[in-house]
């Protein structure tokens, strides 16, 4: 295009420079997402001698994109940088350093085609759906309009963690800038200790195990005993220094760990070559005297060990769970502070988990039944009381033995729910017979240590007793010695008030624990129940017989009655009668039975 100009100022400028750039701008071609540079120059027509203007149109797409992305590229070494047109659905790659993706830079690709290529060749199968949803153009448009910036993380097929971030490049033209950077090391490193965290351990360990070197490996799972108390007593700074010291001890030890990681809090894991795993030395490693100025702290660790079999289908995460599970089976941490995983542990753990998961459902389905075992007067051999025992009978399955589920519920704290069910069932049964004018005997209900720490549970017992309007002496409550180990002040008051109102308090399994005498010294009981271990050994030695005779005499001197549990033979009953035992309970007289059978026995 040529144009005559009459402006004297333009002519003057031309005379000075003999050429003048009058106008220059950039235009975006919407259909191809390219850029043109428009320039207008003044020049002298050699034929006419007139000063004229001419416009030049240059394709500077690459130059333009380079200029606006250089600042970003210089800030960080990105793995990917792409310009995206939301309207035209085109992606222009400016940088791509991702393995397995041989893509040309500075080239426009249809957006859907390039994302599908990324998903199939680069993104981990478990994260492919997330990647597609986060890179959907409609989703990006709405999200960017609200937030102005958007980031998400996914894993690659190499299990590397990548962060993808979108910025507005030109909001008026709906153009985005998408960058990706490798966040693996940052996200897989524990900030405090500088070693890998859980995710880092899983990835590095899998890489080592997949190399198939022919060596044998094991995973060790450590934790520091009572570490919370250390933080509370000495402060978190001291706690942090201890954690760093433990890492140093493990890494520099005879174990020569291939990788050590902090899994969480005071828990660590290590992948080691079995040839370096010496269990005697491990015992020494797990005890350390930490000194900090004038402070000395004795640190005791526990360790679970999982030997990785040659053919193993477990993930590293599952292997760590096995090692962690083994740690829970350490019986004496001071003598042997480690344990080796075996399949029996897994079966027991799974069974315990099913017990806890199915508890409430079993109560609702009435799978738990209360059985009653009569207690007989030693002189008259008449039924004078009973003990309530719970049985679990799932639908169309064999009964679950109490020894299988009671300890699990006690350890987990779920026992209170079951005890509440048993207590209410017993009270309702006694209340019904009492209203009907039929024979009623006291029934003992077992209480656990968790019950005596639960104010709501204790209040519920009082409320139920008040509602039923039955003489409170119809109720006995049995506790083991362990229940008194952590008993609260409220628990002591609860039992004392029950006694004042007329209920009887029994101590169960007396003689089986090392603290039996201090327990009867410090707390008030109405009845002691001799541990069946003593009863079953009657006649086997004079020592056993004399101990049993002495226990009965001691109880009477302390104004307590005695129930002998586990009486199974005529000879045992005769011995106990001779030496003043007050009551018998055992298979020789009657086994635990359902309520209907027990009522029939009472009605006779």
From TrEMBL:
UniProt keyword list: Hydrolase, Nucleotidyltransferase, Transferase
Domain GGDEF: 215-343
Domain EAL: 352-604
GO MF terms held by the record: cyclic-guanylate-specific phosphodiesterase activity; diguanylate cyclase activity
One protein family per Pfam: GGDEF
Keyword Nucleotidyltransferase attached: yes
PROSITE patterns associated with the record: EAL, GGDEF
EC number, UniProt record: 2.7.7.65, 3.1.4.52
Record-given protein name: Bifunctional diguanylate cyclase/phosphodiesterase
Native source species: Ventrimonas faecis
Classification of source organism: Bacteria, Bacillati, Bacillota, Clostridia, Lachnospirales
